[in-house]
Amino acid sequence: MRHTISVLLQNKPGVLSRVTGLFSGRGFNIESLSVAQTLDPEVSCLTLVTSGDDMIIEQITKQLHKLIDAIKVTDMSEHDYVEREMALIRVKAEAHTRAEVLRVIDIFRGKVIDVGPKSYVVEVTGKDSKIQAVIDILRPIGIQEIVRCGTIAMTRAKKS
User: For residue 156, what are the CA distances in angstroms to 76, 77, 117?
Assistant: First the structure.
């Protein structure tokens, strides 16, 4: 099962290396990884996506808790949360395909962020499944390059 885990860490050199080392040393795979400074410049939020059964995820979270620089570990899958990923896609946009590319991007609420003589660079933001759907539709038109960021996630506000 796929799990999104959020870890608040001390913002110090080598911390990310220790987290990734923890995964590789135990044979766990990181499917997606995103890390950035929070409002507090001393703290970073690392969001990672991994897969495994409940026992493996429990082992991962316990190991993350043991890291000296870890402040808080949250398995987002245990909460109601929102997640987003972004992709930049360079797609062929010749005279006969430009309108089709624009229609697809509009349907998925993406935007064209760069226009070249024979290509567009489009930005699409959403869940992993949405990004994959856009890629699948644009592939026959001619994708030239894809760059994706890792998943980021945040718990939803309590509805009370």
Answer: 10, 12, 42
Q: What CA–CA distance (Å, rounded) separates 56 from 120?
A: 42
Residue pair 90/123 in contact (Cβ under 8 Å)? The answer is no
Residue type, 160: S
pTM for the structure as a whole: 0.82
CA-based nearest residue to 150, from 1, 25, 7: 7
Q: Mind listing the pLDDT tens digit for each residue in 116-128?
A: 999 999 999 999 9
| Per-residue pLDDT, 28 | 87
Which pLDDT does position 158 carry in this prediction?
A: 82
Could you give the CA distance from residue 98 to residue 109 in angstroms, rounded to a whole number? 16
The answer to whether the CB of 139 falls within 8 A of the CB of 156 is no
* Residue 35: closest CA among 25, 22, 20: 20
Task: Count CA within 13 A, CB hemisphere, residue 37.
Answer: 7
Q: How far apart are the first and last CA of the chain?
A: 30
